[in-house]
Every structure is written in C-alpha cells, then in structure tokens.
Amino acid sequence: MASSILRRFIPRKTTWMYGQRMMSSTIDVSVDEQTGIALMKMKRKPVNSLNLEFLQDIRNTIVTLEQNKKCKGLILTSDVPKIFSAGIDILEMYQPNEERLHNFWRALQDMWLQLYMTPLATIAAINGHSPAGGCLISISCDYRIMAPNYTIGLNETLLGIVAPFWFKDAMCNTVGYRETEIALALGKLYSTDEALQKGLVDEVVTSEQIMEAAQRKMLEYVKIPNMARAMSKQLMRQETADKLCSTQDSDVQNFVNFCLQDKVQQSLGFYLEQLKKRKSK
Amino acid sequence: MASSILRRFIPRKTTWMYGQRMMSSTIDVSVDEQTGIALMKMKRKPVNSLNLEFLQDIRNTIVTLEQNKKCKGLILTSDVPKIFSAGIDILEMYQPNEERLHNFWRALQDMWLQLYMTPLATIAAINGHSPAGGCLISISCDYRIMAPNYTIGLNETLLGIVAPFWFKDAMCNTVGYRETEIALALGKLYSTDEALQKGLVDEVVTSEQIMEAAQRKMLEYVKIPNMARAMSKQLMRQETADKLCSTQDSDVQNFVNFCLQDKVQQSLGFYLEQLKKRKSK
Amino acid sequence: MASSILRRFIPRKTTWMYGQRMMSSTIDVSVDEQTGIALMKMKRKPVNSLNLEFLQDIRNTIVTLEQNKKCKGLILTSDVPKIFSAGIDILEMYQPNEERLHNFWRALQDMWLQLYMTPLATIAAINGHSPAGGCLISISCDYRIMAPNYTIGLNETLLGIVAPFWFKDAMCNTVGYRETEIALALGKLYSTDEALQKGLVDEVVTSEQIMEAAQRKMLEYVKIPNMARAMSKQLMRQETADKLCSTQDSDVQNFVNFCLQDKVQQSLGFYLEQLKKRKSK
C-alpha cells in the first residue's frame, strides 16, 4: 500500500535537474551529495500560495529527490520574505473552472501524501508565517524549526471554511486531540512561542540561525540507518495516509461541491475584496 | 449520520419557554439574544444527581436551544452550592424497576450524545465538585473553567463500578490515553489544580469570577463563523459519538445486566447505607 | 476476547512454586499474601536478554500469579546489576533454526499479551538500562518507577531494525503519537530524566529506594476494588491487544522472513562481532 502511494507519480515537465541543482519557476532545489541533504526553497511570490502548478512542482521535487540514491533528507524553507507559505491560493476556489478545481484539490492531496509518506527525512525551516496549507506542509515534515514572531495554525474556521479531515489527522498526530479541537474550533493562529509550548513546532531559533539549525538536526536524522528510519515513519503514518487514500475521490467531490455553493463564492469574493483594499492602503 | 444524531429528539413535556426564559423544576435557562449566549443552571437539589427525568430535562434544554436561531453558545453551571453535579443518581440503580432502568441508561446516552455533538459552543463553569457523571458533562463541553478547592474525575472504579467505554473515550479526548489509564485504574479524583495541570480543565478562576470568565471565553467562541465552528466540532467528535450510536442497545443491556447482579445490588445497598449514616451525623 | 487471551495459556514445566515462593533458573518470585503483592526478579545473567525460555518463564510466572487468589499486584524488577533488561536476545535471530525462530517470536508476543492484559496491577521498578524489549516490558506495566542515570527506549531503528507495530502501539499509549514518532525515527534512548519529562516513566527515585517506592505505589493500586480495576484496564487496553491477536501468525511470519534475509544476517553478524570486541577490551 505504501509503495503504491509512493510510486503512482507521473512527473510534470516543469522541473529540470542539472547536476545537483533542480529548477522550476517556483522552487529552487539543491542537493549536497556529501551529506545527502537536499534544500528546497519555495519562491512563488508574493506569499508562496499553493495553486495547482505549485503543488505539482512541490510533489515532483519530492519524487525526484526520492529517486536520487544519494539524497536522504529534505529541508523545506521559503525564499520569500516573512512568509513560509500562506496556504491554498484562494483564486483557485473563486469563480473556478470545475475541471481545474478537481485537479487542484487532487494535486493538494497528492502533494500531501507524497510529503507525509516520503522515505526522506523532512524538516520544515519555518522562516515566516505559516497559516492553513502552510501549517499542513509544516506538520507533515518529521521535524519543525520556527523563527520568532511569526504565526502558524489551521485557521480555516476563521474564514468560514472547515479543514479537511486529513489536515485534522496530521494536526492530531502533532499536538494531540485536545489541542487540535481547540485549534480548529477557534481557527487558532499560534505565535512561535505558543507553537513551541504546544508542540506544534519542535524548536525555535532566529531567522539568521534557522538554516544552520535545520542542517544540524538533519544530520541526526540522516545518520540513522536509512531503511529502518523510513520504515518506522511508514509504521507510524500509513494508517493516517490510508484514510485519505481510500476516499480521495469523494474528498475531491466534497471540496468541489463546497466551493460551488453561492454562499461560499460570496464569502470568497468578499474576502478577496478585503485583501485588495488592504494592499492598496 | 451527525444530523441523524442531532435530529432524532422527541421532546418531553416538562420544559417550557416563556420569551427568553425556560423553566423546569430542575433547570433554569436564560438566553441573551444580544450575545447569543444561553446560561443553563442545574438545580436538582441537593447535589444535581442525574436521574431519568433530570437527564431528559438537560437534553430537552439543549435541543430547544439548538432550535433557537439566535442562540450560538451554552454555558452550563450549577445553582446548588459546592456541587456541579454528583453524577448518576444511585437510587436509579438500586432495587430498580427494569424498564425504568433501561430508560434511565438510554436517557444518559442520549443526553451525552446531544451535549457532545451539539452545534452550540459549550462551556462548563464548574463551580463545585464534579465526580463521575458530573465529570462526563464537563468533558463533553468545548471548554472547562473550574473554581478552586473542588474535585473532578471519573471515580467509578473506587465504587467497584467500571466507567462505560464512552466515558473513557471522552476522557481520552480530553487528557489523552495515558492519563485516562491512570485515572480509571485508581478512580482518581483530581483537585482543581491537578485538573488544570493535566488538562482536565482549561482555566481556573474563583467562584466569584467564574461566570464572568465563562462569558468572556464564550464570546471568543460565538464570534467564530457559526457553521464552520459547528462542522469542525463534528469533524473532531463524530467518530467517538458513532462508537456509542452503533452499540446503544447492547450498551443499555450491559448496564442493566450489571446492575441486576446480586453482588452489585449488595454493594449499592452498602454504599447507600454509608451515605445515610454520614448525613445523620 | 479478553478472557480468551488470558486463558489460553499452557504452562511450561520449569516454574515451581513452594509455598509463597516460585523458582526458575531465570526468575525469582515471592508473594506477600498479607499485602497481595508479588515481586518478580529477573536474573538471566548477564543482561536479562529475552530468549525463548526466558520469555516463557516470564509468561508462566504471570499466569501462575493470576491463578493465586491472594495475589493482586506484581512488581517487576531486575536482580542483575545496572540492567533491567537488554531486550531481545540477538542470538535467537542470528543463524537461527527456523522453527525455534517461529517459537521465539510467538513467545515474545504471548509474554507481551499476558503482561499487557493481566488483571494484576503491575509496576516496573526499572533499576537499570532498559532498551528495546526491556522498554517494551516497562511500558506494558501499569506504572513505571526508574532509578537515575540509566537509559530506556525503543532503539531498534539504530540497529537497522524496525520495532513491531505492537511495540509502537504500547509506546503511543504511554507517551503519545508525536513523541513515539520521534523516538522510533531516531531510535532514541532516553535518560532517566528525559524519560520522566516525556512521561515514559512516572517517577524517579534512587536505586536504594526504588523497591520501597514500588511497594508504596502498589499499595495504592491493590486497595482499589480488584475486579473494577482489572476491568478498567481491559477497557483501556483490549483494542490494542486485539490488533496483535488478530494478526499473530502473519506477525510471526513477517519477523521470520525479515530475519532470514542475507542483509539482516550480515548486520547481526557485524553487530555481534562488535559486542565481542567491546567485551574483550
């Protein structure tokens, strides 16, 4: 089952690899073959919001790295100032083309399954705000290091949206059931300090030191026998991943139906209007 | 499934509503239509013990409030000094009429399902001791505030009784598996301070300030978009509720069989004898 | 189901009971009929490693104690200096007889099921290092007291091995999902202090005081009504035990297949070589 999750990937043609460096318009990846550690920088300006193509790029990058036998660990970070990722690109949901809407949600599912179940050790170096989908990416890594004075959380409820069950499952697996219940009910955005206290992140260091801290921690992970570490991860996470795998189609359909409601389109319109006003100030 | 749980209610005829005020002999309810916050005071003297009719009244109250479109949140508290609720009325279990015993346990299940799954935001203002069934009511709310120098816990084991699996599930969802294991094995009653430390309650304030603190917290909950908050709660709790829903009949039968054992009747008799002696002192 | 687990025992003929004292070559057991507390000392020199016969002895001891109506609680400790138990005897896995390999893993499963589900209250007095299988025995008790300056943990990953799912389940039930994920990924051995902080043990006292502390805590457990305490334990643990019960055969087969791989035999050989060198220094 795990291998079927990990293998059913068909690559898009937008990620190239030259020697140890892969490039796409939204992602910059380099692999240190000495240490076996890859670094992936998200650079979809201005806020690394997750649209269809960006989600596919993230997934493709992970798959390509999995196929590189010298690569054992992956550090995810942002190349955009003050934002790790702002989460789902709301424009994908507003006045959508229905087929693209399907593909978008499927791409989000597939990116998550690839990241959550990857045999690579994964560390999020959260060097900026990380709401909603940004939080999902963070909690799907094996370890989280966060810089001070940012926020992180599944704040969907605040926008009148309900987090999908698999966001909830990944959150429960990180901070436990009770804290997840509070987090979802209130759409809570945790400050860096609160996130550390509740176990939503594992370590806090300054933005200047975050890459060094991530490298140091990753060396702990990659020195562990590779196959055993990957199988331990599968042992822990397979059940959670299988819950989505067995209902991917209906999960897509639920999302599409939700988006196409008049009410939802109206609130998205209102929300986007507000965003524009804020920017123009 | 959720809606079937929430809708299959048939009201008893003992709760009346005049304007914003509902009355029964055991419950006093008022709704502030400005804030959308309802306040329910339990007043079944002397200790708010849960008998058949009281359980039905609690459930009816919740159902009625759910049907009031202006009501978004419910604060539960006690109007009886120093006791939030003493839990199940032992007299329902001692020398019972078998049919009433059935109905009693079913009413406990139904009250719990209604409270645990209600789309209303719920806060327990625990202004007195809260053992056994009192603890169940508390942990089924979304948030708990407790006054100092009281006790709370699932202490059934101490009485030679085993908590039903759904009490255990609600406890696990509040304090986690390991603490629940200790709590049940020892029938542990937590002091207010211990309860805070273990996450069994979320906040401690003096009895004088508890209603104000509950109102303040509830304002946080009711300002969240209503439907998204209710659906997040359902997302978290449906699986736990479904476990009982799918076995309600056998759970009733187990309870009835347990109660009707000679041994159990003897210990209940002994326990009630002791209670009488303590009172006459 | 529980009773089937607890009853399907067929005793080996190596444990004798004279009055209140049972003897085998690897275990010393005494029962204090006054308090109902049994003390089991593991003494398979040099490190209480778990081979087929030792596992059977542990299980037989528990079964015999369960049949003693005066016995309510069991304290497990080590009679070997500085080691509680070093875990599985690697010699069972290296160049194995296949039938014995089958029986060995089955004995480990059966010992675990007996210990994890025993109606006796169980306390581990961890007076030495407790890696891998030693940690499993510890986390399968109801309560853990540990002496300072030792280590405990499921460190299988470090050896290139993956902990079986039921080790993982018992660990999750002790320290929660997130800590288990870290523990398994890194094969983490916790110092006594870390173990206390993460909830992997419940109490720390000096080696000199550990037996007294275990006795004191056990008195709390055995004064609770016996049947209710045992049934509460079953209520908590049955689901976890059933996961193994329903797949015992395939779990044995997985283990046997794993062991018989050339790669695994090579690393075991290498590991045993290193052990020898360390000893000869």
Could you walk me through the main structural features you see in this protein, from its secondary elements to its overall organization?
Three copies of one chain form a homotrimer. Chain A is α/β, with parallel strands linked by helices and 281 residues long. The first copy, chain A, is 50% helix and 17% strand. The first copy, chain A, has eleven helices and 13 strands. Chain A has an eight-stranded mixed beta sheet with strand order 1-2-3-4-6-8-10-13, with helices on both faces. The model of chain A is unreliable at 1-16 (pLDDT under 50). Chains in contact: A-B, A-C, B-C.
Itemize the secondary structure elements and their pairings.
The structure is a homotrimer of 281-residue chains.
Chain A: H1 2-7, E1 16-18, E2 21-23, E3 27-32, E4 37-42, E5 49-50, H2 52-67, E6 73-78, E7 87-88, H3 98-117, E8 121-126, E9 130-131, H4 133-139, E10 143-146, E11 151-153, H5 165-175, H6 177-186, E12 190-191, H7 192-198, E13 203-204, H8 210-222, H9 226-245, H10 248-259, H11 262-280
Parallel strand pairs in A: 4-6, 5-7, 6-8, 8-10, 9-11, 10-13
Antiparallel strand pairs in A: 1-2, 2-3, 3-4, 11-12
Keywords (chains A, B, C): Acetylation, Fatty acid metabolism, Isomerase, Lipid metabolism, Mitochondrion, Transit peptide
Family (chains A, B, C): Belongs to the enoyl-CoA hydratase/isomerase family.
Protein name (chains A, B, C): Enoyl-CoA delta isomerase 1, mitochondrial
